[in-house]
């Protein structure tokens, strides 16, 4: 259960790559929250977490809808396939003093993670990078590639892989998620 909750948090963390990729704590310059809102598909993930490496080959794409929270943060509602059932989870990212940078408090793990929107063009892709700040998972790192469509361009995948490697994540920690046969399509 704990691994599933952390995995879900990783799936929710939106993402694609950036030119400021060498500093994952650096958010998209002039981040525009209004343009970032709406539906995204998680199409790529990478992490150094052992539970992620154990489960990465069984994961599939999820759909996440991003809406603003009342405090300037982000409310992320994700729908995904788990054990042949559609599940929905909600995560709240708390705002920081810097636009595009957030914190996530994991009640299950008792830990705090920073979450930065590293780069986005708002209409096609976004990349977030998360890392543990406090609690038992301080070494946790995860990069997430999100797309407005279920089929991102090959060059975005290449850029994502390069970003992951620049953050010390190796090729074997990167996964591009297959489309499930249910749970993420508009008509469902």
UniProtKB/TrEMBL annotation:
Gene of this entry: Ptgds
Entry protein name: Prostaglandin-H2 D-isomerase
GO CC terms, sorted: extracellular space; Golgi apparatus; nuclear membrane; perinuclear region of cytoplasm; rough endoplasmic reticulum
Domain (Lipocalin/cytosolic fatty-acid binding) ranges: 38-179
Signal peptide segment: 1-21
Xref: Gene3D superfamilies: 2.40.128.20
Keyword Nucleotide-binding on entry: no
One biological process term in Gene Ontology: prostaglandin biosynthetic process
Organism: Dipodomys ordii (Ord's kangaroo rat)
Subcellular localization, as worded in the UniProt entry: Cytoplasm, Perinuclear region; Golgi apparatus; Nucleus membrane; Rough endoplasmic reticulum
EC number assigned by the record: 5.3.99.2
Entry keyword Lipid biosynthesis: yes
Recorded catalytic activity of this chain's protein: prostaglandin H2 = prostaglandin D2
GO MF term list: prostaglandin-D synthase activity; small molecule binding
Pfam families attached to this UniProt entry: Lipocalin
């Amino acid at each position: 259960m704990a691994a599933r909750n952390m995995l879900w948090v990783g799936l929710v963390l939106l993402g694609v790559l950036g030119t400021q990729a060498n500093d994952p704590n650096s958010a998209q310059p002039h981040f525009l929250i209004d343009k970032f809102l709406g539906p995204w598909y998680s199409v790529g993930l990478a992490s150094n977490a052992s539970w992620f490496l154990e489960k990465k080959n069984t994961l599939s794409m999820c759909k996440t809808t991003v809406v603003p929270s009342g405090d300037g943060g982000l409310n992320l509602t994700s729908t995904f396939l788990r054990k042949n059932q559609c599940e929905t989870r909600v995560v709240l990212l708390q705002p920081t003093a810097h636009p595009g940078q957030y914190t996530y408090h994991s009640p299950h793990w008792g830990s705090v993670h920073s979450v930065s929107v590293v780069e986005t063009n708002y209409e096609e892709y976004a990349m977030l990078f998360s890392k543990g700040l406090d609690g038992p998972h301080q070494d946790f790192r995860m990069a997430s590639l999100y797309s407005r469509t279920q089929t991102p361009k090959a060059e975005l995948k290449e850029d994502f892989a390069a970003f992951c490697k620049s953050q010390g994540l190796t090729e074997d920690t990167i996964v591009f998620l297959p489309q499930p046969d249910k749970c993420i399509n508009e008509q469902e």
